[in-house]
Specification:
The chain has 344 residues and is α+β, with helices and mostly antiparallel strands. It has 13 helices and eight strands. The strands form two sheets. It has a five-stranded antiparallel sheet.
């Protein structure tokens, strides 16, 4: 019987979903489906280098992870691991470049994503491949193994958001990461954009520290100690700022309100309906605010251009009129509305 975590080789001659015939393929079972007598294998670095373009194109076109493959139990045999985490991560980087080339994105690098080079849809597709590959490699590393069960459970979510905020919001590749970027992510972007439980925010920094150690081990970053120091300095602020709705973006506030209202945010139609209602309400509130601001009288001093000894003519509410009276004599009555100036 095969189970998750087992290392296996694929029998020569087995066929993949892409109709490619295997030879010298191997990997680790990451998801087992005993009732269907099949499983999903995370392919090792040796196999990744053997993947033909036709297979990669099939995986890309069908939205499947190119570093994984589905096989029947009958096509597998137990074996030992053939590579290590550094070799695996390095090969994933090479696979990423191959996939970019197949998608017509030649010339891009995992170290730099300049938004002027390609449109946002292409960028998002490329980053999705990169993030998925790095997450898989991290999950297979000793740094991941050193974390608590709760940290491991939420690691994919935290790492994915961290990478997205660094590449998309801060717009920096690995070779450009700095303490200032770390600070912006921790105390600005995470509280503003990331929707999760407070417990997850509490471990966000600790997971990122292990991920930075992993990136350092595969030489994707060269300043890990400096970045880790920045995370340690800012990580306690994440939970405090995330608890304050004043730090939330409009998108996060809207989705939070949807959840409280019982909206199924995984149901696209239901969520879009709520968003439309939410936006209409916001527009109405802005209109009311604009009307209030337009009608609001700003209390200025209406007598600032009158000298205190200047003589004026005033009329009281009972009809009494005083002429050639010094302003300072009736200043209090004027300010309290008991009379009004009819001639300066």
């Amino acid at each position: 019987m095969f189970k998750e975590g087992d290392y296996v080789t694929v029998k020569s001659g087995a066929q993949t979903e892409s109709k490619v015939t295997t030879h010298n393929w191997a990997g680790k079972i990451i998801f087992s489906i005993p009732e269907d007598q099949c499983c999903i294998i995370e392919l090792d670095s040796i196999t990744l280098k053997l993947l033909p373009d036709d297979h990669l194109k099939f995986m890309i076109e069908n939205g499947l992870d190119s570093s994984e493959c589905l096989f029947d139990f009958k096509d597998l045999e137990h074996s030992k691991r053939r590579d290590n985490e550094v070799e695996y991560a390095s090969t994933l980087s090479e696979l990423f470049d191959r996939m970019l080339s197949l998608e017509g994105l030649d010339g891009l690098s995992i170290d730099s994503f300049d938004s002027e080079l390609f449109d946002y849809e292409e960028r998002d597709e490329a980053l999705e491949v990169l993030f998925g590959s790095l997450t898989l490699a991290f999950n297979d590393s000793s740094f991941f193994g050193a974390m608590t069960a709760f940290q491991k459970e939420h690691s994919d979510f935290i790492v994915g958001n961290f990478l997205d905020l660094m590449f998309v919001f801060e717009e920096v590749g690995f070779d450009q990461w700095s303490p200032n970027n770390i600070r912006a992510v921790c105390i600005k972007h995470v509280p503003s954009e990331v929707l999760s439980t407070f417990e997850t925010f509490e471990i966000f920094g600790d997971v990122i520290i292990q991920f930075l150690n992993f990136l350092d081990s595969i030489e994707l970053i060269s300043n890990a100690p400096t970045l880790i120091k920045a995370v340690n300095r800012e990580k306690s602020k994440i939970i405090r700022k995330a608890k304050n709705p004043a730090n939330w973006s409009l998108r996060k506030a809207m989705i939070s309100e949807a959840i409280v209202a019982g909206v199924d945010i995984d149901d696209e139609d239901e969520l879009n309906s709520f968003i439309a209602t939410f936006e209409d309400r916001m527009i109405d509130e802005f209109k009311q605010f604009d009307q209030y601001e337009s009608a609001k009288v700003i209390p200025l001093n209406p007598f600032k251009d009158i000298g205190r000894n200047q003589k004026i003519k005033v009329k009281y509410k009972d009809g009494k009129i005083l002429e050639d009276i010094k302003f300072k004599k009736v200043e209090t009555d004027l300010k309290e509305g008991r009379c009004e100036i009819i001639k300066k």
